[in-house]
Amino acid sequence: MATPSAGGYYPPVGFHFKVEIDGIGNNNDSRFQSVSGLNVEYDTESFKEGGENRFEHKLPVRTKYPDLSLKRGMLVDSAVIKWCLKAFQNREFRPADVYITLLNENHTGIKTWHLRKAWPKKLSTSDFNAQENAVVVETLELCYTYFTVYDGDKDSNK
After folding, report:
1. Which helix (H) or strand (E) holds 86?
2. 101-123: b or e for each residue (b if 16 or more CB lie within 10 Å)?
């Protein structure tokens, strides 16, 4: 975790992280340029109390988690993409746990998001355009049941 100094606390940077899909891929498969969708919120149900017209009560019902979006430069011969293609082409779904670990300056985990039972929902590749000098980016969207957050890397919570 970032240590306090004379100037105070410095929050961790958001660009030093790794993504691991349990049992799938190698070190190259853990490198993504962006991760989004690490959110959780409650669905609510409104309850109107008889005789009270100034407000209505909102009660929590269930939590919901959006899809996780992972982006990276195209990786040739990726085990993660093969995992996705088995689902899309053969309908062979093999849910896997995903670990997203925020790293410090020593490359050790300071916070980990553990997503349970993730499976590929969408796979897309950026447009090809001869007039642009751009890297091919692949985007992977995963559905998952829920996530937990803990300090350290994935091995520190076992």
Report:
1. helix 79-90
2. bbbeeeeebbbbbbbeebebbeb
What does the pLDDT read at residue 29? 85
In total, the chain counts a number of residues equal to: 158
Distances in whole angstroms, Cα of residue 8 to Cα of each of 4, 5, 104: 5, 5, 17
Residue-level pLDDT at 51: 81
Q: How many CB atoms lie within 10 A of CB 16?
A: 13
First to last CA, the chain: 19
Whole-angstrom Cα distance, residue 100 to residue 140? 14
* Domains delineated in the chain: 17-157 (2.30.110.20)
Contact 17, 100 (CB under 8 A): yes
The count of C-alpha atoms lying within 13 angstroms of the C-alpha of 156, restricted to the half-sphere facing its C-beta, is 12
Residues in the chain, pLDDT under 70: 1-6, 157-158
What is the pLDDT, as a whole number, of residue 158?
A: 61
- Eight-state DSSP code of residue 7: T
Give CA–CA dist 12/111, Å, rounded. 10
17 burial (CB, 10 Å; 0-12 / 13-18 / 19+) is buried
